[in-house]
Every structure is written in structure tokens, then in C-alpha cells.
Design brief:
Elements: H1 13-26, H2 48-63, E1 67-78, E2 81-92, E3 95-104, E4 147-155, E5 160-164, E6 167-173, H3 184-187, E7 196-203, E8 206-214, E9 220-226, E10 232-238, E11 244-254, E12 261-270, E13 273-286
Antiparallel strand pairs: 1-2, 1-13, 2-3, 3-4, 4-5, 5-6, 7-8, 8-9, 9-10, 10-11, 11-12, 12-13
Length: 301
């Protein structure tokens, strides 16, 4: 399968930047196992051309929505303990904005030594760190109590930016960090004419098509598509640290009567170990959102 360039999914970045960073610290990486050899398909709709056509229909259903507002809660298992994040995502075409509040757990004396964004000496250099973060350096100091940290992530259609209340200077994040999947609706873009149907698989009585696509760098992404309702139930790919990331989607509900469905629950695993869960609290279909919403220069805390 040849490498294919893909646009960045609009809804993926905010949640996945956090999940991937903490997951990399929680579970040692292992390589993604190669897919088993393809098996023969019966002469029905379960052929790759037919799956591709149905995937196009799904993609067009999501693309036809002018704007979305999604309220969600993310629970992460971090090296410092359990952390919760409440967020509101607004989406317009390829653009998105996430406004969130993260409950940062208690930091031990010495700060987040070895944690995401930490320097070799232990001083915090995360995008969430404030100007005084270096006070929790190595070798002691008081513990930092839990705090609620407001932050915003914006993808303006070209670049991804992150800001927070402790460090309001916008920080550009590489777009490849966006490829940590949250929304089932965004995953259909990875299926095209050159995707492969690697096999069918039966899991607890449910039949799945297992389709191999690829990201913008040509790295494989495996999708488990329910043969009965043609919804993506699982996605699997390799993260930048070499770990196997698995996203499991459940509790699908339609956005509106007759409209496309989105999962209300997403569980994220790294190398088979659960690292976070996303619960969607509310979804609203909006009209046209103003472009100023997606301008990082106009973010205020």
C-alpha cells in the first residue's frame, strides 16, 4: 500500500496531545504487530471497493454538518495520579477550538521529574507550566496542591496552537501530533481506493471488517468496522514513541434524527493498558460559527 498524504482531522488534536503525552510516560512502548494475512471474502458487500464507497458516504455525512459544539469529560491516568479535564470543542469544517479546564493533581516535591514536558533535571517545561514552574525543581521543595488549569487549543485550518492561563503566549504544536484519534467521524478519511481489507474478524459474536489505511506519513492505521451497522468500533496505530495506541468507541447516538452517529464513550489504551476515557456529555449542531472563534490571537482567559 503506497503512502498517502492526508489532511489533519479537525477534532483530534486537543484530547490526543494530552493522552499521547501521558500515555507515553505510563506504559513502556512496544511495536505494533503486523496484521495477519488477508483471508478470502464472500462475494457480497464485504469487498474493499464496496467498503470504500460506504466510507465515502459516511465521510460526506459528517462533512455536511456546518458546525458542532461538543461538551466532554476526559479522565486520564497519569504518572501523578488520576486527572480530569472538562472541555468544550467547537468545530467548523477543518477548524476546531477546544476550551478546557484540567484538574492537575498534586505534584510531589521536585515537580514532574521525568514526566511529559520535563527537562532532564526535573524542572517542568510543559506547555502547561507557568513562569514560576522551575521553583519545583529537583531536590525538594513543597508539594504543589491540585489546581484547575484553563487552556485552549486551536487548529486554524493550517496550524495547531496551544495556550493556557499560566502561559498565554501561543505555542505552535506540530500538526503530526494531531494524529491521535478521538472522533470516529474523522477516521473515515483514512479509507480510500488504495486501502486494504486485511481480514474479517469475529469478536464475541460480532463480525468486523479490519481495514488498513495510513496517516499523512504513510504509517498504518487499522480500523475495525462493524459489518452490521458499518460503524467504526476500534482504531489502532503506533504513536511517536513506538507504543500501540488503541481507541475503542461505544454508545453511539445520532446527532439528529436521520443524521450520522457519534460515540459518546471512547476508551484509550496503550499497549493494551487503559490510559484514559472520554465521556461526551452533550452535542449540539450549530449554524455557521464566526471565524474569530478559531483565531488564537483573540483568546482570552
Amino acid at each position: 500500500m503506497r503512502p498517502r498524504m492526508k489532511r489533519i482531522p479537525a477534532l483530534l488534536t486537543p484530547f490526543c496531545i494530552l493522552t499521547a503525552a501521558y500515555a507515553a510516560e505510563t506504559v513502556p512502548p512496544t511495536a505494533v504487530a503486523p496484521a495477519p494475512a488477508a483471508v478470502a471474502e464472500s462475494a457480497d458487500a464485504g469487498t474493499m471497493p464496496a467498503i470504500f464507497r460506504r466510507a465515502q458516504v459516511r465521510r460526506e455525512e459528517y462533512a455536511g454538518i456546518a458546525g458542532l459544539t461538543i461538551e466532554q469529560q476526559l479522565t486520564m491516568l497519569t504518572p501523578m495520579g488520576k486527572s480530569q479535564q472538562n472541555a468544550v470543542i467547537r468545530r467548523k469544517g477543518d477548524k476546531f477550538r477546544l476550551d478546557g479546564v484540567m484538574r492537575v493533581p498534586t505534584l510531589p516535591p521536585g515537580g514532574m521529574s521525568g514526566g511529559p514536558g520535563a527537562s532532564p533535571g526535573g524542572a517542568q517545561s510543559s506547555p502547561f507550566a507557568g513562569p514560576n514552574a522551575s521553583q519545583q525543581g529537583p531536590g525538594g521543595g513543597p508539594s504543589v496542591p491540585p489546581q484547575d488549569l484553563k487552556f485552549t487549543v486551536i487548529f486554524d485550518g493550517r496550524r495547531t496552537w496551544m495556550l493556557n492561563q499560566n502561559n498565554t503566549a501561543p505555542r505552535q504544536i506540530p500538526n503530526e501530533a494531531s494524529m491521535r484519534h478521538q472522533s470516529e467521524g474523522d477516521l473515515w478519511m483514512f479509507i480510500d481506493e488504495s486501502s486494504d481489507l486485511t481480514r474479517t474478524e469475529n469478536v464475541k459474536g460480532t463480525e468486523y471488517y479490519v481495514v488498513e489505511g495510513s496517516d499523512e506519513k504513510g504509517l498504518p492505521i487499522f480500523l475495525w468496522i462493524d459489518r452490521q451497522d458499518f460503524l467504526i468500533r476500534k482504531a489502532e496505530f503506533q504513536d511517536p514513541q513506538g507504543g500501540r495506541m488503541t481507541f475503542q468507541y461505544s454508545d453511539y447516538q445520532p446527532l439528529f434524527q436521520g443524521g450520522p452517529a457519534l460515540p459518546r464513550t471512547t476508551e484509550v489504551l496503550r499497549d493494551g493498558r487503559s490510559v484514559s476515557t472520554v465521556q461526551v456529555r452533550n452535542i449540539r449542531v450549530e449554524g455557521d460559527l464566526p471565524d474569530d472563534v478559531f483565531d488564537f490571537k483573540k483568546v482570552q482567559f
